[in-house]
Design a protein that fits this description.
heterodimer; A: mainly alpha; 8 helices; 2 strands; B: mainly alpha
Amino acid sequence: MTSLVSNFDEFMDGLWKQNPIFVMVLGMCPTLAVTVSAINSISMGLATTFVLVASCLLVSLLRHAIPKEVRIASYIVIIATFVTVVDYAIQAISLELYEALGAYIKLIVANCILLGRAEAHAAKTPPVAASLNACGMGLGFTLGLLAIGAVREIFGSGMLFGVSLFGPHFQPWVIMVLPPGGFFVLAGWLILFAAIKARNSSQLSSGERALEGGKS
Amino acid sequence: MNHDSIANILLTTMLPGNFVLAMFLGMCPFLGVSQKLETAIPMGLATAFVIMVASISAYFMNMLLLHFHLEFLSVITFITVIACTVQLVEMFVKKYFPLLFRQLGIYLPLITTNCAVLGVALFQTARQYDFLQSVAYSFGGGMGFTLALILMAGLRERLQLANVPTLVQGAAISLIVGGLLSLSFMGFSGIGGGE
């Protein structure tokens, strides 16, 4: 049953230990651009997860068939195919969402996480492990997007999932839904994680009191 | 048909609608290669060149696709054209500037997955720009990208001398600096008709 354990590890790897957003800081464009609300973040995350799992599975299945010289081009075409599928699927499911995400659905093609996973992992591993790892990565990405999107929506428009939180007298913190807000919120999360990590590792040496990482 | 004037498009894409700072396209090289001015400038120019070529080819590809009613293939064709262009630039740089080639490292082939390049191709199609407008859009976009990269590199060179708290070091401080830069670029809104 060791394979089951290692498969679970593959999954958790992407979800937490190597979280694409907070640990590897990859795929920044959609991370910052679409996270103005929690709903947008989740849809973007799930769309990316689908493309990631499908393309990693296919790359893994074809890993002996694709010649080394043209591998990047082949991966890109595989990814672009699935992105086209997702693009049309979202358009069919919810036009409103499609308009909110705009060209960023198509831009999933250019997300570094996808090519990075295909090249660094899926091309070397059997299908099951590759798709589990991709699934973990995708969900980790969704989690990261949701974390940023929720903070930006709460502060920027006083709502979460479209439900008003603070009543009608809330003064929205407009900067949060504007481009700079994305940078600041992500930086805030990174600082928070660094603070937690520092506190966990320096329990014996309490001399160095870590600066409390607040959200900007 | 879109009726934005050429000057309008140029100014908008360079300043208030900057690809990196307002539309979050091309964040990876923006955070990755912006450590030193001497690599930021060639990287910016190489990307700007790829954007130009990709945009012009995307314009004609789109005409072809529209003619045969194959719009659903747009993502695949655009990304393939971009990958070929990047390959060309990579071979050119490797042959004539081997030192630069080594400095840029992995980020040169990664121009393929630079959202700015694909973004230009997609946005110009979505906005139905004609040929001259597309050229202006891609030129402005490329210059705006280079500008953002150079500004960021300059700031980060200064940052190396600054006393940054341990917790904030690495990606966090770059993001904060990027956020401030983005904030200052918002001051340009209104130039060129605004977004």
